[in-house]
Design goal:
homodimer; alpha+beta; Ribosomal Protein S5, domain 2; Alpha-Beta Plaits; 2 domains
Chain lengths: ~325, ~325
Amino acid sequence: MNRAEAVSYLLRDQPKDPKRDEGVYFAPANIALCKYWGKRNSELNLPYNSSLSISLQQYGAKTMIRPHADRFNRIRLNGQVVDNETSFAQKITAYLALFNMCSVTNYSVDTEINIPVGAGLASSACGFAALAGALGRLYDWELPKSTLSILGRLGSGSASRSFWHGFVEWQAGESADGMDSFGIPLTHLWPELRIGLLIFNTLAKPVSSREAMALTVATSPFYSLWPAKQNADLVRIKEAIATHNFNQLAETAEHNALTMHALMLTATPPILYSLPETLQGMKEVWHCRQRGVPVYFTQDAGPNLKLLFLAKDLPAVLASFPSLQVIAPFEGRDVA
Amino acid sequence: MNRAEAVSYLLRDQPKDPKRDEGVYFAPANIALCKYWGKRNSELNLPYNSSLSISLQQYGAKTMIRPHADRFNRIRLNGQVVDNETSFAQKITAYLALFNMCSVTNYSVDTEINIPVGAGLASSACGFAALAGALGRLYDWELPKSTLSILGRLGSGSASRSFWHGFVEWQAGESADGMDSFGIPLTHLWPELRIGLLIFNTLAKPVSSREAMALTVATSPFYSLWPAKQNADLVRIKEAIATHNFNQLAETAEHNALTMHALMLTATPPILYSLPETLQGMKEVWHCRQRGVPVYFTQDAGPNLKLLFLAKDLPAVLASFPSLQVIAPFEGRDVA
């Protein structure tokens, strides 16, 4: 099954024509505490392992999509038209082409993303989730969110987790067609939890996550042991969430991230997303812990760090990281 | 068998009293191209795997040892008396106590080391090799160098490789008493080979190699795959030396070092010897290669990098690393 066949199958009973002038959808960015790294099927973005994330509240992508009577899609990002030759536009165009089963052939897509794009801050996750969600609104699909999550996943694996706030597990699934590989929100709230964005560099990454994952799986001498490590960490993280054991949650998440980056270092050629500032930041986090402040980090396919801490420690954390952008993932939420 | 029993056994037929007023010995520092990381026996410093190094010519330790009629040893490093309470002095005292089978109970030890001590520049390797060698001269032991190598190993594992110039393999051995675990020099010369020391920090490391190894073996989820990786790299490196294939040698050595540091990142707690400057240096090395200059790095239990390149590329390498300390390991040598 390829992507287009998966889309056809999922939308087999849905309206084929737009039901509105436009569809609008917001999807939060998400930060994996237990990482997704390595695809068992790169066409369908099916992972070797389940992963688990926390969504970033108001940070994410808001997309408005409209039919567009022209030979080309018109894609705008944060108000600027994106050249159709860029890989950004081509990925969106290829994705929209999967939905070409109706009278509409091209679209106007306006996306506002309030985090840096392509810098390991989950912009493609929230971007594809918002796009799938906006299409759903435009066509008035009546689909469970798990199906939207699959549709998002076909654009970017981690988009499967960007359809909910709070903690979300992306269950890897076992079937070859990926119909059991989608996000599942956890019902646990944790109002005291804080995420801090420590941004060193907002330039697009030198190697895409897609390429980096493929290279890691193909060449790391250690990749064969990653799935077992992942499964163990996922159990520990879910247990920590259920019992509000912050140290267990954050320690496991930090180790999980370090292990993912260690794997990349052992690829041929090696992949190193960290900058000198990243290392300095890690060391500062460890110094904080030595001084008794329970703060941890996680890192994705980019140089920036995301800090994990509790509300009570905000002043101490800000003292060490004055420029930190702080997010309260559960603020004002009764349910995820 | 403990260390003292190993020493007694090795010196069973040797003179028990000094034959001279003093013994003097120089041992070069050595940089592993295929690393030693993890002990199958930490009392006897027996490794899980064979390793392979290149010696640093004139850089190393020169030790003069004399009987000392006092209650304590008197240890001097680069002309300065070292307090007997320091861990540096205590390691040497414990080592000398292994040789307490004669009329001499204490020693005066003068060591000159012309590389930074304790900063991952193999100072303990050359230090213990020079100490064992100097004892041999003082007592006039008639021992093959392989036995001296075992005696050095009992002080510091990698000292086993510091009894020769050029390339040296430390054969891991299989026996429980370590009598087959010693250095073996390779006869290959490679006059064009250059080593560059890129020194960022000469402070002693925050975690000793001994502790770091033990932590890695005990907690890294990937350590079980390290021996196979090591064996494969050793074969590739020996093949590269035999055929003077510089890229194969240096690429394998760089990957081997990155893999060792990746393993450490996955320990609990994580071990990170790199500084921000280390990362900057790695990236600069990779930029050089992208520009067509074949230069590679290796890194030991410290933040400094050791560059590998050929004599013809010295001007290009110096243009990128003006402060590089360059070593010609085979200069003026007919045999290792």
